[in-house]
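Quality-control log, excerpt.
Job 1 of 2 completed; input and output follow.
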Amino acid sequence: MKIKNNAIIQILAASILMLIPLWYNGSPLYYPDSMGYIFWGMQGMEIPERAATYGLFVRYFSLGQSLWLNIYFQAFLTAFIVRILWFKILEINNPFYFLFSCLVLGLGSSLGWTLATLMPDIFCTLSAVCLFLLLFFRSRYSVSTRWFLILIFVFCSIQHVSIFLINMLLLAFFSVWLWVKGQFKTQIIGLAGLFFLVFLSNIGIGLVHKMVSGSFYISKSSGSFLIGRLAETGILGRYLDENCASNPGPLCQMRTALPMGAEYFLWNENSPIKTTGGLHDANGYYKEAIADILTSPKYLAYFVEAGLRSAMKQFFLLDIGDGLGGGEKLKQLRFFPGNESDYNMSKQIGQINFFRLNDFCYLVLAGLVFLFVRSRAIFDLSPDLKITAIFIVILLISNALVNGALSTPLNRYQVRVFWLVYLWLLAALYPVLQPYFSSDPKSKL
């Protein structure tokens, strides 16, 4: 079977090329939060402060033997989606250019690191891409492929609660854009179906929790996380200063310690949140305060202002490596024979130079932009490339708004989607670079 005509071989080869960081790091990358997914997931228990689905993904797809299986699956699924986008939508029917692009994405963008990290970040991007494909291009592939994309969308969407919010915002932006274009009525059935699918996926998180814990819920800690964000922005401190005299409550005892960073507020052992019941026991008090704050025009205005400022910051946080590094001996890895020694021998424990890595990725981006401008490719963009560019911009904005407004801005949240910019530039440059990947060369750069 030749690689040129075999889709499975192409996808397998592409997934290996995308995982370049694994080959010189030596092991899957353990972001600190991923320890919770591994620990709780391997015991088949609910994760106290997150959706349980990614933990169950770790448990079942690892087969109890190796975390590498989870990483390979993430890469395979990504290569599959990229190939559909490449061949069916952008009509780049050149397998060698497809593999070259996957190599560039793995080596020169954040994609390889996002795939190699044991966190549900990649599923946020894949869920959004599936949404895009189902909204605008569902007529281009068979019914079976369409249903397979729906299944992938649901699987990806139930991995984290924030994916629901990002997809809802994405659909809202697209609804406005279609209305401005005068195409809303022709797309209304498709939009309604996708809104329903997004809601269904969110309910799926609750059903997973029902299976694991016996109770249906979407998030046990949403109030705690939002209180942490309000504490970080100073809004909670203002609210308590103005209300505790007339309405003393459990939260008032923490007002002298505010403001403080959300990470410290939520996780540090000495945080004042511990004195009010921690993440879960006082969640009712947190939600009551949140409702009071967000229904007050004054505090709501403060929250919107702080959210927009954070979203602007989040939008430009594009460095790889935030949180990736050596740590304490990882006892959770006892579930996986050989993975602990794998981790201890990896370059991650020896501190990867992420400054140089990011410099290299920015040079790759600069090179692609230079070729794009020099070749004047912007004047030859197909309608599908134009709408894909609009989708990527809307996704970058939606991702920044959700993560910037509702949590502490963090590099990892934005780089998980920014690799699509590299992908788009590679697609736009195909007419220019195609002669280098053809047996019938034409004029070159």
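Job 2 of 2 completed; input and output follow.
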Amino acid sequence: MSFEEFITRKIRLDEKLYKVEEKIAALRAQAEKSTTSLTLAPGGNAYNDSRLEELVIKIADLEAERGMLYREIEGVSAELSSFLSDLVDPYQMSVLIERYVNIKTVEQIMEILNRSKSFVKVKHRRGFAEAKKLYENKTRES
């Protein structure tokens, strides 16, 4: 696996987690709406009962998937942080960790480091190139 593939894997996991969390929120809103319908309807409604049951099952499945994603992201993030800590330049290390481990935007990193946008972009570009070299050297040694 190349360094770009390693970073892409982390990004994809984060994107997948975000989508799962969005789905959970949407299903919870639907479940709340179904619950409101059940409490307002006289005598109950079999359709709403079964719909609510389906929603609860889907939410439980997605929450289980979210838990697995959290564990996988945690492992990949720890591995990435450990690897990036080998960078010589502390700013390059900070920028890459904030960007890929903590999922910060360039603007957020600027605020954290109290540096300009061009500084952050240069440190990112140079740090990424340096990290790629380190990664390739480590994978060759393994």
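Post-run check on job 2. Residues 1-84 form a domain with the Methane Monooxygenase Hydroxylase; Chain G, domain 1 fold (CATH 1.20.58).
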